[in-house]
Amino acid sequence: MKKPALLVFFCAGCLALGAAAWRPQAAAEETLFIKGAKIYTEGPAGVLRDAGLLIQAGKIRRIFGKGDEPSLASLGKARLIDAAGKTVIPGLVDAHTFLSGYYRLLENTEPVTSDLIAAAAFVPLSPEVEEAVRSGITTINFSPRSENLVGGMSSILKLVQSSSEPSIVRNEAFLKISFNAAMFRPDRAPTSLMGAREMISQRLKLAKTSAGKNREGVFQQAGLLKLLEGTIRPMIAASTFAEINTALKWLEDWGFQGVIVGGEEAHLLAGALKDKKIPVLLSPILPAYPERIAAGAFALAKQGIAFGFVSQTPEAAPLSLRLSALALFRLGLPQEEALKTITIQPARILGVADSLGSLEEGKDADLVIFGGEPLDLRSPVEAVYINGRAVFEKGK
Fold first, then answer.
1. Cα distance between residue 227 and residue 115, in whole Å
2. Which domains occur in the chain, in start order?
3. Could you tell me the pLDDT band of residue 171, with boundaries at 50, 70 and 90?
């Protein structure tokens, strides 16, 4: 594949997405067989050519190599999709987004609001959800915003549009914490990174000493208690060297295993991140300034640090996930490895890779069919399936 210019294919990709049809209430397919495709499994099988997928009851039942396809008679009433000349990849995993609920994901009364659960703010019929699905996104980590020191608990959701099928993968996934500049305000504490580190530590100590006592009228402790219990992990918004360094020191103070989100200068702390096994969810690489973030991301890849890209929609468009992977591909990362930053890697970081992020037998049938190579933005998204359901098909 020729490595295209980002801006040119950004426009082409938008045009391709606009020509498709949204199917919010698509009926479930009992059995589906996709044949003749080039499949980026993003799993141990690697890239398969002229391969097939057998999908039953929302799961990938079999993956067939070239010449290993089942007979048509054995498939019975299965729906057959001829994907010759097309590619199939796992559904994209957007591991930090405000999709559909931006203004409802911030309780702006005070800096610690850990009781907020993001799923309550999600609007499945939002046009932003439609755009995300048409871009190939099937799973999101729906997160509180970064303007509070402790914003609340994120929720991992699938972008299904069916009232008969739950979309929640994990209702309380991560406790969103922010050492990001967006959190600081002149009219309330904390006003510095040192103050932020001290405030959250004091709130945790208070929650620890009051655990099990009468909590009537007490707000802001549920998420902190879950963090102390180890039932959720911290996801920390931090972009600059100083912010990320503060986050790492705070994690060490409390013995938490967290995740950095944003991470524009994470490559400057690559050694510490690798030693502490802290993964990074990077802000998207946008056409306005691709070189700096792309170079930093490439440095993380060379260091072997686990990372993935996020869209932070609506702060960036859902298409920014593919643009970010494309930027790494253009820098020399193999296409299969670049795709992992928006599929299996974020799934691993979120702790859901046992069922999502790669195409393997037994996993959920969440996948995207492209008209060509997935990192050629001239290749339209032909179809998107979640749990084996066609939630989007071009021209239908």
1. 12
2. 6-90+360-393 (2.30.40.10), 92-350 (3.20.20.140)
3. very high
